[in-house]
Design goal:
heterodimer; A: alpha+beta; Rossmann fold; Immunoglobulin-like; 8-stranded mixed beta sheet; 5-stranded mixed beta sheet; 14 helices; 24% helix; elongated; B: alpha/beta; 2 domains; 6-stranded mixed beta sheet; two-stranded antiparallel sheet; disordered N terminus
Amino acid sequence: MSFLAPALLAALLAIAIPIVVHLVQRERRTVVAFPSLMFLRRIPNQSVKRRAIRHWPLLALRILALALIALAFARPFLPTGALSAAAGGARQVVVLLDTSASMGYAGHWARAQEEARRRIRSLGAGDGAAVAFFATDVEIGARSEAGPAALIGAIDRARPGSGITRYGPALRAAAGLLESAAASRREIVLISDFQKSGWDAAQDVKLPAGVTLTTVSVAEPSTSNAALVGLTLAQQAGPKGVIVSATARIVNHAAQPAADRAITLDVDGHRVDARRVALAPGATTVAFAPFALGGRVARVTARLAPDALPADDVFHAVVTAGGHVPVLIIESANPSPDASLYLMRSLDVAAAPGFATRLARTDRVTPEDLAAAAVIVLNDARPPSGAAGRALASAVNAGAGLLVVLGERSAWAGDDPDLLPGRLGAPVDRSGTSGGTLGYVDLSHPAFEIFSSPRSGDLTAARIFRYRAITASGKVLARFDDGAVAVAERKVGRGTVIVWTSTFDSYWNDLPLKPVFVPLVHQVMQHLGRYVEPRPWYTVGDTYDPADAPPVGPARRPAADGAFTVLAPSGRTVEPVPGAGTHIVPLSEAGFYEIRPAAAGGDPIVVAVNGAAGESDLSPIDPAELAASVSAAAGAPGAGTGHEITVEEGERRQSLWWYLLVTGLLLLVIEAAVASRLPRIA
Amino acid sequence: MERRDTRVSMRGAQFVDPSALARIRNLELLARTVVDGFINGLHRAPHLGFSLDFAEHRGYEPGDDLRRVDWRVFARTDRYYVKQFEADSNANLVVALDVSSSMRYASRGITKLDYGRFLAASLLYFSHRQRDRVGLVTFDTEIREYVPPSARHLEFGLYALDRVADGRPGALAPPMLRLTERLVRRGIIVVISDFYDAPEAIANAVRPLRYRGHDVIVCHVLDPAELDFPFTEASSFEDLETGDRMPIVPASVREQYQALVRQHTEALGRLFTDSRIDYALFNTAVPLDHALFHYLSARERLSRAR
């Protein structure tokens, strides 16, 4: 005989109640108050054997009744004969094994493996099974078609990775595996530490009817964990180069402070600082000694002395020197004396990013000069002709930015590259009046966005005395107060062309003398150069687009055709995933990824990846709560046929409790009748 | 179970049932009911115990009782004079009432404490009518209330009796010692208690009062159930003072219990008599006038002895 609720057998202790009542309660019932027991105490042998049980049949009735009721609540059933056969039937089991980073905590993984092996070994001859590993993604480890040994082998080979716990996709995938199964009983066994951060009730995951979910928690009752969750890298230009100050942020998830722990900082594999830190509950920051940035890019790693979960005790980051966007300024063959003075001065003072400025004459510029520039400024000059002209068009099509500054020397012939966002007209002189101003500016454009806030710069303060009329064919970003085009933009290939219809000297306008000039130039150059502030690190689960790499240093942007190789921190090669017009790299491991352009040499692009901070918080969710929220309602329409049979057989097995309960209650009635007829004992 | 002590019943006396008295809430009215009824029943000596002394003569006035004319003075002076008397008010009466927890017991009718209160109230009223100074002491392990003896303290005494506090375990010796120290002037002291202690200890506690020259009357109040132990069912008996419980089969201990109580009362009577202390055992089922009669008999005897 087996019991559905064996814990309720503890209620058998209730059979002691009649005895206790007999010996204790009966005595309490007849208490006689008396002034003093002085005389009674002097009488020897005053008490009698009241504790002797006189009515054994009555006591036996009571005990038997209580025992039967207790057994009834334990829900006994007899798994014999046909019942046993009906209860069986083929099973299809999907063992979902959590391989997220948090499973590396202490003995979580060992317990999970052992539990998974036990589940596989308990399968019958006709049962089917599959083992799936899940974290950020779901991976089918093995199926029972390959034999139980393959399932066990897959479990043995699996290791917790850097992934993030996500129960929703895992359960959906498991349900998908069971959809086509013909077995009468379909079951998902979810083995995990049941991190609260892994469950999002809003995902609304529901298992199909007939699929049961069995949860197995391997989490330890109490956990303590401290994790490195951030690294701030502040750069400061010094006489000997860039000085970087690193500050690590540590979160102690335990309620008690942790003892002093060692923390180190490595830069490009060299130890630059080591400290000890006391970790109070909550967040703690540690400031390291500043270090000088040798190259343009450095790999920075902070390491906390390992605890029960070592995966989150390491934090990687990449520090990139401010860099310089290469800018080529092309002047006319006979430029005015200070045609590029204000432009170059304003570019020179930029810091992050800086601008590497080169000056060239339009008749002497070479295709190499043009190919090396991220931004080309055609400052009051005709576009170069010949090979240089073609190189200009090619560079812009490949992604370089072109800023056309119009003046009296500007001209754009028909055989010049088709880059200008409009058709060039004659100069317009407004010096007879007090000059024009900017009347409209598209402040939503990235080049002007910084001026959108109140008191962030007055673009209308500049007086415009002359400008070149242009019939815009591209997007107009700014107009003068007379409606003429001031700034227009055009996309050419992957590049961008912006035209400013007046000069950058102080003759046609006084814009260079206004405070807004320098930030305006910086913003326009960053926009044209497609400059993106480099991210020091990514998180596991993110994707990386190599096109986002900063256009600085020897590491150039890979070509858009995806001709690059990606090396994961584990050393394996990662295949980029084709995206919209580019290829993206999925980041699934913690550490440093290296992205090497296939054709060109030079240093690779380095991307730092860290595990999700949520994996460090080991607070569990109640597995029953998760199971209840994903399981189909009992008796829901559409439940599988095999499941209905199982329920009927289960009910039949459990009907024994009903007879026991009725018999117990009948015995209690008989006992009451017998007890009331017995004479009270004098 | 209820029994009348026929030895003390008096012809013509009006017996007042203690249970009926319990329905009279006012102690003064109760005492008056008992005492007046008792005195009216004493045909033999309506002024028994009254102490009348000659005070002076005054001239006869019409309406004066002719029996009070002093004929000897008329014979000498040929004038009518009547004799005037002055009541004797030299005696002190102090009633010491045990209010411990054990006195709260009643198998039926009234508790021992109520019986003691009625008895005390009756004695105070009776003595007050005789111009005695009256006082009251209630005690358990210590003196709870003390009304010093005075001719005007009847109401105070009755009031103190009316608001007897919650009972606590009792002990006779400490309050008796304190009482001995307080009562300097000699008088009559009536001690009312159930005396649950060893006879020697009780006698030793009361004797100091006698040694100080007081006339001591001890009233031992017991419930009929304490005398007869009429219980039938095996039960846990709980001590009212200590809370201790003891499983008892009454049938098997009744005779031994009665014998022990009898030995106890006999020992008390013997010890008190040896110390010239008047001792009487009162059953709460017996009317109060028996107690009053006993008191007056004792007082008459004591007055003769003085």
